[in-house]
Structure formats: structure tokens, C-alpha cells
Amino acid sequence: MTSTTTRERLLGSARTLFQRQGFAATGIKQILEVSDAASASLYHFYPGGKHDLAADAIRTSGAEYQALVESVLDSAPDPCAGVRACFDGAASTVEASGYQDACPIATVASEIANTDDELRQACADVFDSWIDAAAKRFRAAGVKPAAARELAVTFIMLLEGGFLMARVRRDAAPLRRAGRTMEALVRASLDS
Amino acid sequence: MTSTTTRERLLGSARTLFQRQGFAATGIKQILEVSDAASASLYHFYPGGKHDLAADAIRTSGAEYQALVESVLDSAPDPCAGVRACFDGAASTVEASGYQDACPIATVASEIANTDDELRQACADVFDSWIDAAAKRFRAAGVKPAAARELAVTFIMLLEGGFLMARVRRDAAPLRRAGRTMEALVRASLDS
DNA sequence: TCGGCGCTGGAGAGATCATTCCATCCGCTG
DNA sequence: CAGCGGATGGAATGATCTCTCCAGCGCCGA
């Protein structure tokens, strides 16, 4: 039996709802209902309320997705196949969820970028961490540090753009094609 | 003297606020304050309220941004320089606004993609229209139709990913570098 | 068995939300 | 000048929002 604590259920529901609906559109009430928890429990674990909960959701979702991407990259024979597998996996996830689940933090990040500097910084940290993880692997494959970082930034930008396009247009094909484009860019960097 | 009607002020404020804060985080009250209009006026021009107003904001902002992109592309000597100018211009706009103004519809699009099918469709139409406009120009430069369309989709994906990255990380450099990457992709398509 | 404490149930405070309503106003036309 | 219809000011609607409070629950060490 997998026991789930109230705190875990709160965080889990919040992560899912924030990912799918964003920050402002997700109500505390809705999180409590999905979590089957009392409001006092939320404010017990997260004294800062919705804001604290969102910060935790951003950090944990960011770390979890990074671990997923790293495992995909590391289990591929080379970075070219690795990045393509990331896009293909992302496309499959988006499709499988009925175009609901894409990037775990993008919707919130876009929403609060101008209005909440603390959450904005949390999202920036997540992106930086993703970029570092990818750049490290490109370097390990022989790409020069500066180029590896640029390649990693492009990787995340293309992935985010692909997520948005797929969700809005209800079509995961562009995400897969973006994977091939990214693969070509990585290959070009490896050859030089 | 430029006379502005109440309807124009309502739509203008709504467009700006939705772009910067998203749909859910922007209140009718705030729109009315910025517009200096009465609530009855809003419901007079937009009987469907906030929803109708957002639909109009998405459509008009989408069309306006498309016109801007088209003028940049058409005034460049070739599509390579054109796409780069689009990214450079986007980066400058983001910087000049203090990282507030990026894509006019991305924040709302991301927010409502799972929850409001009518607004989602409006956003999808805008993206499709942008893609068509870019693909048309790539074809005119000699790129085969299928490749031109893929290139155009990549263009928008990279632009959207760049907007998000720039806003969240408060750094427009990735947006400019994305422009060079996109330029290289267009050039490669022209050569083949 | 008892005391302490982390945790929870439930009621509700206080603010803000989108929306409605109606009397009134303004500019146009007859 | 009379009258009509589009547009507006402002109050009030009910719903919903986040957050607080406190009594009491159950678990765990002594």
C-alpha cells in the first residue's frame, strides 16, 4: 500500500491543477476538493497559502521533469537521439493526456512573469537548471562549452514553443518535427 | 486630436492587460479603471462580458501582430534577414517594455487551452494565420510548400519559446540567438 | 494511562469577483 | 423643439475568493 500524506496530496493536486489551468484560474477551494483536505491543513503546511504552495509546486515539478529529461537523454546512445526522444516523449505525453499535460511550469511562468517576482524567479531557476543539465550532456559529447549552452537554450525554447503549439492547436505533430529539427542542430554542433 | 471611443479604450486596455497578466488574473474592474469606462458600457459593447472581450482581444491582437511581422518580413532583402529581423525586433520590444510585453496572446492561450474551447480555437486560428503568412513568404523565396510550412511552424515555435524564456529569465539574448538559429534553418532550406 | 502536539473539521469573516439593473444623459432626426 | 435610441453612471446582486480561528481529534513517547 502506498500511503499518501495530506501534504503530498495537496502538493500533487496543486501541481496538476497549476500545470493545466495556471495560477490565477486555480482556486484554493478546488485544490482542497481534489486533495480531499481541509483548508486548515493547507495553511498548516503552507503558511503563506496559495503563493507558498505554488512555489513548492514549481520547484518540485521542475525537478521531477528535469529528472525525466535526464533519464531520457542518458539512456539514448548519443545526444542526437536523446533530444529527439525527449520531443517524441513529450509529444506522446501531450497526446495521451488529451492535450492537457505539457510543460509543468510554463503556464504559471507565463502568467506570473510580470506580477510576482518570487514565483518568476523560481521558474527562472527551473529553466536554468534544465539548461545546465542539457548543456552538460552536450559538452560531454564534445560540444564546446559556449556552443553547448546555446544549444541547450535552443532546446528548451523549442520544447516550450512546441508545447504551446501542440496544446493550443491540438496537434502533437509539430512537437515531433521540432524534435527532428533539434536533432539536426545537435548533429551540426557535434560535427564542427 | 485622436478621438478614442469607449469601445476602443475598453478593447485596448483589455488587450494590454490580458497580454501581460493573462485571462484569469485580469479583472473586469481593472479593465474598467484603466479604460475609464462604466461597467454598463462594457456589457453594452460586449454582451458576453469578459469572455467576448477576450475573444475580440485575441483576434485583433493576433491580426495586428501578424501585420507587424509581415511588414518586417517584406521589408527585408530575403527571408533569412527577415526572420532574423523579426527576432531582433521582438527582443528589442521585450527589453523596451521591461520584459512585460512579448507575445500578445501566448499567456492567455496557455491558460485557457484546457478550459475554454472557444478562446482556445481563437488562439489556434491566430497561430494558423501567422504560420500561413510566414509559409507563403518562404514559398515565394523558393522553398517547397511542405518544407515551407514546417519552417513556418518552427519559426513560430521558436519565437514563442524565446518569448517565454526572455520574459521569465529577464534576458532577451536567447531571443536574438534564436533568430540566428532560425536564419540558419531558413538558409538551409533555400539552398536545397 | 496520561500529557503533549501535530493535525484536522467546520464555520465564517472580509474582500473581491462578474454581472445586472434602471434612471439618466447625449446627440441625432423629424 | 419634441422624441427616440444608443450610451453611461452608479448602486446593488449573489457568488466565489483567500484566509483565519478554535475546539477537538488521534498518535506517540513517558
Features:
Tetracycline Repressor, domain 2, 9 helices, mainly alpha, DNA-binding, 192 residues, elongated, homodimer, 78% helix
Describe this structure in words.
Two copies of one chain form a homodimer. Chain A is mostly helical and 192 residues long. The first copy, chain A, has a domain at 58-191: Tetracycline Repressor, domain 2, CATH 1.10.357. Helix content of chain A is 78%, strand content 0%. Chain A is built from nine helices and no strands. In chain A, helix 1 crosses helix 2 and helix 4 crosses helix 5. Chain A is elongated. The mean pLDDT of chain A is 97. The interface between A and B is large, with 42 and 42 residues. Chain A binds a DNA duplex (30 and 30 nucleotides) through helix 3.
Secondary structure elements and pairings:
The structure is a homodimer of 192-residue chains.
Chain A: H1 6-21, H2 28-35, H3 39-45, H4 50-74, H5 79-96, H6 106-112, H7 117-140, H8 145-169, H9 173-191
Helix pairs in contact in A: 1-2, 1-4, 4-5, 4-7, 5-8, 5-9, 7-8, 8-9
Chain A binds a DNA duplex (30 and 30 nucleotides) through helix 3.
Entry summary:
2 copies of one chain form a homodimer. Chain A is mostly helical.
Major sheet description of chain A: none
CATH architectural arrangement of the domain at 58-191 in chain A: Orthogonal Bundle
Fraction in beta strands of chain A: under 5%
Run of helices and strands of chain A: HHHHHHHHH
Uncertain regions spanning at least 5 consecutive residues of chain A: none
State mean pLDDT of chain A (0 to 100 scale): 97
- The assembly state of the depicted protein chains is homodimer
CATH class of the domain at 58-191 in chain A: Mainly Alpha
| Global geometry of chain A | elongated
